[in-house]
Amino acid sequence: MVVIGGGQAGLSVGYHLSRTGLSFAILDAEARVGDAWRRRWDSLRLFTPAWLDGLDGLPFPAPRHSFPTKDEMGDYLEAYAKRFKLPVRSGARVESVSREGQRYLVRTERSEIEADHVVVAMSNFQRARSPSFAKDLRAEIVQLHSSDYRGPSGLRPGGVLVVGAGNSGAEIALELAQRGHKVWLSGRDTGHLPFRVEGLAGRLILVRLVMRVMLHSVLTVRNPLGRRARKKALAKGAPLIRVKPHDLLAAGVERTPRVAGVQGGLPVLEDGRVLSVENIVWCTGFENGSSFMKLPVFDERGEPHHDEGVVRGEPGLYFVGLQFLFAMASSMVQGVGRDAARVVAVIAARCGKNDAEQGRSGRAD
Q1: N or C, fewer C-beta in 10 Å, the chain?
Q2: How far apart are CA 236 and CA 230, in angstroms?
Q3: How far apart (Å, rounded) are the C-alpha atoms in residues 125 and 146?
Q4: Which of 147, 166, 144, 113 is nearest to 277 (CA)?
Q5: Side-by-side strand order, sheet with 118-121
Q6: What is the pLDDT of residues 239-273, one digit of tens each?
Q7: How far is CA 35 from CA 7, 29, 71, 109, in A?
């Protein structure tokens, strides 16, 4: 059995598989467990408090109401893999998954693995996306995608256009403005939470009501309200969680319409303005990076055909970690364990395992 991805989704699947006695390997493209978190920008913190950031079997080691940094999250995932002796093969980027008869062939750069079951444990956000006209901008303009941005020191002195006004764009724009850059933030208003996540209202409303009840238990694919919410969630961005519009205004960030293209090597906005900037940070999202899947299991939007993670028409193919796989919380640390447990239960049933075998350790083939 093969699990593709060594982030929180893959490790969650591994934890539950290890309790069935089934043999498996976790293939991770990163050199070290947790590196996908460590590579994000330096000031990034999670939106959820530490008591919601632990995976099954191991609480997050931080004060209950603190908000972990991205490095702390990366280190936690590494410690989790070691604690449960999960068979992670680092530096094993999967190049293709195909099917031969009833079995799957998983190819990496250095090996081929045959498996009866494959779990793709990756989020929707794998490959950075930027507009095609970015190549027409002047060569001296520094261009970074949010996935490559680390902090203000990576940019040239002068103006910065941040394209994409979701959570990443807003946080990066605020940081750059506070460090002395003139910043334009381009994109539609996604809305925002009316309270601070770090305050009492955040603890009572966001964490206990929204996170624990609405996103985890109410908004699921098993009811009409959840199915409507899923359609909206996949089509538009989430509201701003930590940054507020007046934070941006106070820091001097100028909101602008969307970027329409390039004129004279400079970005031009939908209202016709041409911005002379030294830097552009593309906070324009990601593609799902599923091109390695050589199986006809995706719809026209690139979403797999599945029922709560179990792929239709396939004898042993599963997904965990996707946005709204089962509930709004599915792609969050607090929700991925439940989805992993459900998928592993299906695998165990198909393999003839039962509850009496829980507690045995899975090992890599």
Answers
A1: C
A2: 10
A3: 12
A4: 144
A5: 88-90, 25-28, 2-4, 118-121, 317-320, 310-311, 306-307
A6: 888 999 999 999 999 999 999 999 999 999 999 99
A7: 9, 10, 9, 19
Could you tell me the domains of the chain? 2-126+288-357 (3.50.50.60), 129-192+239-282 (3.50.50.60)
Element (H, E) at 172: helix 167-178
Q: Are strands 118-121 and 317-320 parallel, antiparallel or unpaired?
A: parallel
Which tokens is 44 given? 């990034």
Decide: 241 and 210 in contact? Cβ < 8 Å: no
Secondary structure letter of residue 360 according to DSSP: B
d(CA 2, CA 365): 9
Question: pLDDT for 141-192, tens place per residue?
Answer: 999 999 999 999 999 999 999 999 999 999 999 999 999 999 999 998 888 8
Using CA of residue 122, residue 125, residue 128, residue 131, what is the dihedral sign? Answer: positive
Answer yes or no: pTM beyond 0.85. yes
| Secondary structure E strands in the chain | 2-4, 25-28, 88-90, 94-100, 103-108, 112-115, 118-121, 127-128, 142-145, 160-163, 183-186, 254-256, 259-263, 266-269, 279-282, 286-287, 306-307, 310-311, 317-320
The two structure tokens encoding residue 353: 């395992």
292 against 216, higher pLDDT = 292
